[in-house]
Amino acid sequence: MPLDRSKPIWILGIGAFGRAVSNALADEDFNVEGFVQTTPTSTEIDGRPVFSLDRVPARAQLVLGIFNRETPYDEILGTCAAAGVENVLMPWEVYPLISQHLGWRYWLSDPRYIHAHKQRTSLVETIWADEESRETYRRILQFRAGEDVDYASFRHADEQYFNSITLAEHTRDRGCYVDCGAYDGDTYLRYLQKVGEPSRAILLEPDRSNFRQLVARTAAMKSDVICLPLAVSDNLVSLRFTETSGEASSVGDHGTVVVQAIALDQLMASQRVGFLKLDVEGAEKAALHGAKTILARDRPVVTMSLYHRPEDMWELPEILHEYCKNYSFYLRQHYFNSFDSVLYAIPRLC
Known about the structure:
The chain is of the alpha/beta class. The chain has 2 domains: about 10-105, Rossmann fold (3-Layer(aba) Sandwich); about 120-345, Rossmann fold, CATH 3.40.50.150. Helices cover about 30% and strands about 20% of the residues. It has 12 helices and 17 strands. α1 packs across α3 (about 90-100). It is globular and about 65 Å long. The termini are far apart.
């Protein structure tokens, strides 16, 4: 149901996304009445009142201003229905109206954008190695197009990155462990627990605060660990970067600092890669292009985020399928609202 400019709008959620949606709608001359929380923690946000859900009229226009991996949308809709509020507009219904204000918001897009790439997604669906991956792929696309809201609360029981898909014997100790977007070293510590020490670990993290934590956390390790304050791309280049001192730092034109990026083909020219993890907040495509040689030469296990940009759902599998010959490809969902979906590329035994 489209938004009615003549009627007031309430925004469910007072976080950064909800506030951005509120400001964007106001800029487009919509009548934003205020914010809504199930149990209000404030009385006013950005000059607008905060209401409890039970004070929202049953026929109100309630825009869902929550966009994260923590709170499943189907559960939120259930809470709204229990309160008698059923006219809830989802983020993908509102995004086309205010995308110029919100900019890039991970996988969020106009549902028509997904439908426009149906031919490509149909081809990508054929590359998955098991029915679980094919079903996951279909449901993620349907969810993001607003056609399968129940998928919001689904996630696989498998541990992210190190699970039955990646821990087969032939994937162990095949060379360097390379972690792009290493954050504070949390993923590498899980690698040590699940797999054991690699011949060497190369951990890349361009966010300065995260990098300091990474260095401190790995300093006492006896294993051969090299921490580098670098991003990854398709070449040696300086990039604008937005630091969040958290998990969402990213490369982008609006970044406030400049970081150095390098192609993995350059960095790992003389070292064999056995396990490659890519979680680089939307820069995965450029990173893959910069790793074409090592992917063919070393045939590493690859684990890669598949939720940072809408087009990642078809572009990244297409690239890996081209660069990684004689591989099996899997897809698993590790958090809510289709966040933390991961593509697993596993070399087949030759």
